[in-house]
Amino acid sequence: MSVPRPAAVIVLAAGEGTRMKSQTPKVLHELCGRALLDHMLAAARDLGPERLIVVIGHALERMRDHLAATSPDARAVVQNEQRGTGHAVRTVLEEVGTISGTVLVTYGDVPLLRPQTLATLLERHDADGNAVTVLTAEVPDPTGYGRIIRDESGAVLEIVEEKDADAGQRAIKEMNSGIYAFDGELLADAVKRVSADNAQGEEYLTDVLAILRGDGHRVGACVAGDFVEVEGVNDRVQLAAARQVLNRRLLEAHMRAGVTIIDPAGTWIDVSVRIAPDAVIHPGTQLHGDTVIEAGAEVGPATTLTGTRVGAGATVRNAVCDHADIGPEANVGPYAYLRPGTVIGRRSKAGTFVEMKNTKVGERSKVPHLSYAGDATIGDDVNIGASTVFVNYDGVDKHHTTVRDGAFVGCDTMLIAPVTVGDGAYTAAGSVIADDVPPGSIGVARARQRNIEKWVLRRRAGTKSAAAAQRALAEQDQEKEA
Ligand code: UD1
Ligand code: CA
User: Fold this and answer.
1) Helix 85-96 crosses helix 184-191 at what angle (to 10 degrees)?
2) Which of 58, 217, 323, 369 is an active site residue?
């Protein structure tokens, strides 16, 4: 069955969300790489609405900036005073005018709601020819929610808020999710007739159901299969619970698509991450932003990737990579930190205690141990010895270093940028290379060693070192005599 396209989706998000106890408005708190509000907007977009409207009020400037940056397709309507959900919808319709067709109303704090559930609500609304269809759920503990009041035949009569309910009504476990499909024209008329004569002195959108029913229109309900989907996030405990549910959902989709996830409880992933089949994700891994993991790559344990690509068959262990591009069959870590602009070519290695920034490494090159490479270009088949530092910063400016194909940089080399190590060139271990090394040359830039004989015996007399030296020298003398 094709889902009828709604004329508009109105997302209510003007409230403060005081229980978050936060400087950040509730709906802008992050969950799996997206603000709570943006999860709702993504689900709404899936329905292809003609208009997407967000009601904002609290933290107006931040909300406006966020919408402008992330949802230019959404229209913000300002509700200056939060006088209830009915008032919020009335404010929208007064500003944009009556909307004909189906109007879906929902909240900005229900990030687990699946597009499929909204589609089912719309189908039911359409098929039954209702004036309003409310999405409900049977919950173990309905405390705080509006209750769905039905007659003996099961027809929906009205919604009663917890604060206005009597004991019998409070015992009802079917709650109002706060998500509805309305006939837009009937909504525009009914929402004007909602009073604020109730326990909270607010204009309740829920009252629209009884009003439309009183006018002789059809009022229906659609019961959500999974109540977890419609539970909103009100505090940080619920935020953590929602994160667990959504994370699990995302990981299960990846596992069903052929990705091995060793420890789903200890793996955290954003909605925008893509992983190809036969990739293996080890425990303690976090995958953020537009991270892409290609076929057969192994990531983790204890690895955090942000906006990073991991090529097919590559291995990334105990690493933190931020906007890096790791080529196929490359090897990163354990204990590597790849910062933005790092590109590791096919079969290359950024090994243990290696940090790189804005560095492009060619193919089959190795930076195996204890090194820093910043602002550099490293060619193919290069070996960078342990403890090499690309000295890119002179205290004022950053400079570039080039190490060309087949070069061999000795251990503990300081490459003082700007500098170039030519094709097939070497540097001697412990060198401070401030001048270019021509192709095929070796750059030696260190003092010659000088040994001062018996210095320890004279200057460290009486120490264990002096005793050890004395024994060795005596043995040498005996050998000479023999
Ligand atoms: C509302 C419903 C209740 C339902 C519950 C589900 C009403 C009267 N009650 O109660 O039946 O069970 O949601 O969560 O509708 N908002 C505005 N402007 C306002 C008031 C609210 O934009 O003037 C927004 C809030 O930011 C929030 C949403 O609407 O996202 C719900 O408002 P809230 O005050 O939390 O309603 P509840 O009391 O939870
Ligand atoms: Ca609420």
Assistant:
1) 120
2) 369
Instruction: Please give the CATH superfamily to which domain 258-443 belongs.
Output: Hexapeptide repeat proteins (2.160.10.10)
Ligand 1 in contact with 44 (CB < 6 A)? no
pLDDT digits 0-9 by tens, 205-238: 999 999 999 999 999 999 999 999 999 999 999 9
Is any ligand 1 atom within 6 A of the Cβ of residue 232? yes
Region 419-426: mean pLDDT is: 98
We find that the CATH architecture of domain 8-229 is Alpha-Beta Complex (3.90)
Distance CA 215, CA 217 (A): 6
Kindly report, residue by residue over 12-36, the tens digit of the pLDDT: 999 989 999 999 999 999 999 999 9
- Determine if residue 15 is labeled as part of a ligand binding site: yes
User: Domain locations in the chain?
Assistant: 8-229, 258-443
Mutate to test the pocket of ligand 1, among 54, 82, 85 (most ligand atoms within 8 A of CB): 85
CB distance 124 to 113 below 8 Å: no
* pLDDT tens digits, 240-258: 999 999 999 999 999 999 9
Structure tokens, 90:
């009335």
Task: Look up the pTM and report it.
Answer: 0.94
Which single residue is written with the structure tokens 């929906």? 156
Q: Does the active-site annotation cover 369?
A: yes
